[in-house]
Write a structure and sequence with these properties.
Layout lengths: L8 H6 L3 E5 L4 H13 L4 E5 L5 H11 L4 E5 L4 H9 L4 E3 L5 H10 L2 E3 L1 E2 L2 H9 L4 E4 L7 H8 L7 E4 L8 H5 L7 E3 L5 H6 L2 H13 L4
Parallel strand pairs: 1-2, 1-9, 2-3, 3-4, 4-5, 6-7, 7-8
Helix pairs in contact: 2-3, 2-10, 4-5
Bound molecules: 3-phosphoglyceric acid.
Length: 214
């Protein structure tokens, strides 16, 4: 049975110009990192299901950082969606799209940003009711010019390009009328995590918030 998600996909996208794509290998990093991002102005946090510690990290953030909204990235199956919801995730991001993942997210009360890289994938996601999509991998699959081309036939879709987005090229994406935000891993560098350099992560978040939508 579908459960209402606490945040719509559009709300997740419009909270800040950038959704950080986060890879955590140590549960001890989760809470101070989330606090740093929130202090810098970023609340919507995509913790990717790529490490054995990811679910425990989500749980810790959900429990101890009430101003953060933890989401799960790299959701590839119904089981991933269920585990993420159980760990306290409030939204999900997937690198591709299947109807089974969409259904599982609706069942779990997770809003979903489905990943797409082709027109057919956009149409499949639209058939299931999705109009806010992640364009992945954005730079490798065509970059800003691909989004401009999609703006014709898919005039009613808004995108979060992710993959190869940097502080240098983010503005080019954000200036497009069909882009609501971008995703990127640069806000949480592995070396900043390893060094416990939370002020650097806060500063990266602060700078990301200065990026402007058109
Ligand atoms: C992702 O993992 O969703 C993206 O690959 C993040 O890409 P980036 O590391 O190029 O920002």
């Amino acid at each position: 049975m579908a459960v209402n998600a606490p945040f719509t996909a559009l709300q997740v996208m419009q909270d800040a110009p950038v959704i950080p794509v986060i890879v955590l290998n140590d549960v001890a990093h989760a809470v101070p990192m989330a606090r740093a991002l929130v202090a810098g102005g970023i609340r919507m946090l995509e913790v990717t299901l790529r490490t054995p510690q990811a679910l425990a990290c989500m749980e810790a953030i959900a429990k101890e950082v009430p101003d953060a909204v933890v989401g799960a990235g790299t959701v590839r199956s119904a089981a991933d969606a269920k585990a993420a919801a159980n760990a306290g995730a409030k939204f999900a991001v997937s690198p591709g799209y299947t109807s089974a993942v969409g259904q599982a997210c609706r069942d779990q009360g997770l809003s979903l940003l489905p990943g797409v890289a082709t027109g057919s994938e956009i149409m499949m996601a639209q058939e299931d009711g999705y109009t806010e999509l992640k364009f992945f991998p954005a730079m490798q699959a065509g970059g800003p010019s691909m989004l401009k081309a999609w703006g014709g036939p898919f005039f009613d879709v808004r995108f979060c390009p992710t993959g190869g987005v940097t502080p240098q090229n983010a503005s080019e994406f954000l200036s497009l009328s069909n882009v609501a935000c971008v995703g990127g891993s640069w806000l949480v560098p592995a070396d900043a995590l390893a060094q416990g350099d939370w002020p650097r992560i806060e500063q990266l978040a602060r700078e990301a918030c200065q990026l402007k939508l058109r």
